[in-house]
Fold:
Amino acid sequence: MDSLESFDQVFEWVSNYCKGQLSEIAHTLWIKDIEPVGFSDSTAYLRVKTKFKQNIVQEKYADLLAKGYEQVLGFPVAISVDCEEETPAPVETPELGPEYEYTFETFIVGNSNKFAHAASLAVAANPGGAYNPLFIYGASGLGKTHLLTAVYTEISKTFPEKKQIFVKGEEFTNELINAISEQTTKAFHEKYRSADVLHMDDVQFIGGKESTQEEFFHTFNSLYQEGKQIILTSDRPPKEIKTLEDRLRTRFEWGLLADVQPPDFETRTAIIRRKAEQIGIEVPTEVAEYIANRLKTNIRQLEGAVKKLKAYKMLQNSPPSIMVAQNTIRDILNDNQPVPVTIDRIISEVGRTFGISPTDIRSNKRSANISNDRQISVYVVREITQISMQAIGEEFGGRDHSTMVYAVQQVEKNMAKDPRYKETVEDIIKNIRSS
Structure:
């Protein structure tokens, strides 16, 4: 891993904060390309390419950048901006762990993904001769791209003579549009139809695009007939990609369909420990389990939490703790969703599911159906936002802490004894997180 990756990650969050305060043009011109070079004594050291840009950033954007750092890190930060024309003395930074690669070695196998993992290993060992096509599907952040990349990496080592192409569905569409515009479709055909192994990530994005599907249909046929390997990933199985042409849907189902599900608690904990090991940070057992108990559906979020723990440790010189983990989880879950907006959306989704108005859910009405829906709303708010029980109580008419705890406990009991109830609650959570 790059020795400055943690500084880069922190600056990415700062940049996103600034983006929300500026026009897109201003952000692109003055903030987006700033290079973070270090952090020392509560000072962020930044670098730009020219003296002109240095002057503009210092004069007009230093205060905004400082606010961004304080928003991310929770304490005041000074800003120092240099330019490449005047390279500053290097700032000493701690040594970080080795590069974290998307390989089979770094993939944590559990009950939720072992079938997809085994199928990917088989394809990597015998491209074109095992499962063709291999179609891996599952929700965002569960490791599909990791497996796809791992296959690519393994084939590169074992069969270096094979030509591999790795492309996202959206990129394939954009390339085709450019090829048509520039009258280079012949070169486009030759590029993709000469591949020995074609990896397409997020193939669902070609759905509904007539010309793209037409082109991919012929590419698929050409590769398949020549025994070349095709590996596809999607956020859903072929039959659920409603905008996909039947002829493509049928071909995607010719080979092997392998799904990946959200990891169980043990796998989530193992992922946290492996990521921590890779980036050179020690996470106490209670902290790892705290995170694993609250980030349940997305591996990318688990890895992001560990990265943020690393950033806190480096920049605040404090070891990972439950308090830091709470802040980390809250930041991750609400990066793009202000808490009040999220709560409104949760209550609306619960109301829509059960046919109850959001006003009734927030009210003091005590009928059995409204109380039940209110308890589910409280549970989902706790799961998604991770705000305190007291804060949740305030959102539900000023109810006290013990009432909120009781609501969560009731939902947990109902989920344990009623599979249909549990499925309904989990669907509400999925809908909120994917909206």
Residues 86-100 have pLDDT under 50 and may be disordered. The first strand starts at residue 35 and ends at 40.
